[in-house]
Design a protein that fits this description.
The chain is built from six helices and eight strands, in the order H-H-E-E-H-E-E-E-E-H-H-E-E-H. It is an alpha+beta fold and 208 residues long. The protein has a domain of 136 residues: SMI1/KNR4-like (3-Layer(aba) Sandwich). Strands 1-2-3-4-5-6 form a six-stranded antiparallel beta sheet, covered by helices on one side. Strand 3 and strand 4 form a beta hairpin.
Length: 208
């Protein structure tokens, strides 16, 4: 099974569970499967930190990387001006693209373009994809970057210095280790600038 195999190669729980830990109350198969996975492993990193799955909750209730906190609109979703309102994010790839539920499907929310790309119908299918197809995790770049620069700092993702949508290369030299929430706001600003603009429009980038 996909989830079982993924957990075998993943980190220990990121947050310790506690007795009054809240649960996801939605009755859909996807939410129930996520609840089961997080009851087994309360958040984790995998594949050299290229995959980050958020915790259900834990003793560090203020953590940005619990499901409840990460999906609060004011943390980063509001920066996308409504486009990210109807997705429920449960993890992210190496670049901060969000693994999410949308209309009872698992999709990837592209942080630069705000586009949704269908991934899978079940969490087991999702787990098989991220383990076996580098496209969905960025694992090979995680390996290359860390071999040269060291481990990815917890709470950070590798963000392109020149955004991919503007021609930035998928290579270690174009990546910068950046804090997750700030990185989402940076890409949201890029998305807002580029949305509905003609080709060859000038874009103003903040230096990170």
């Amino acid at each position: 099974m996909g989830i079982r195999e993924l957990l075998k190669i993943s980190s220990p729980d990121l947050l310790p569970a506690h007795a009054d830990q809240p649960i996801l109350t939605q009755e859909s198969p996807l939410y129930m499967a996520l609840m089961a996975m997080l009851s087994t492993r309360n958040g984790f990193y995998s594949l050299e930190s290229s995959i980050h799955v958020y915790s259900l909750s834990g003793l560090s209730a203020g953590s940005n990387f619990t499901l409840e906190r990460w999906n609060k609109p004011e943390l980063w979703k509001d920066a996308y001006s409504g486009v990210a309102d109807n997705i429920f994010c449960f993890g992210q790839d190496l670049f901060g693209n969000q693994y999410c539920f949308s209309d009872e499907r698992i999709c990837l929310f592209d942080a630069e373009t705000a586009e949704l790309e269908y991934m899978a119908a079940t969490l087991d299918e999702w787990a098989e994809l991220v383990m076996n197809d580098n496209y969905w995790s960025g694992h090979s770049l995680a390996h290359s970057w860390q071999a040269e620069y060291g481990a990815v700092t917890p709470g950070h993702r590798l963000i392109p210095k020149l955004p991919f949508i503007l021609g930035g290369k998928f290579e270690a030299a174009n990546l910068h280790c950046f804090e997750n929430v700030k990185a989402m706001h940076y890409r949201a600003e890029l998305f807002i600038q580029m949305r509905d603009t003609p080709d060859n429009t000038q874009v103003k980038l903040k230096i990170i």
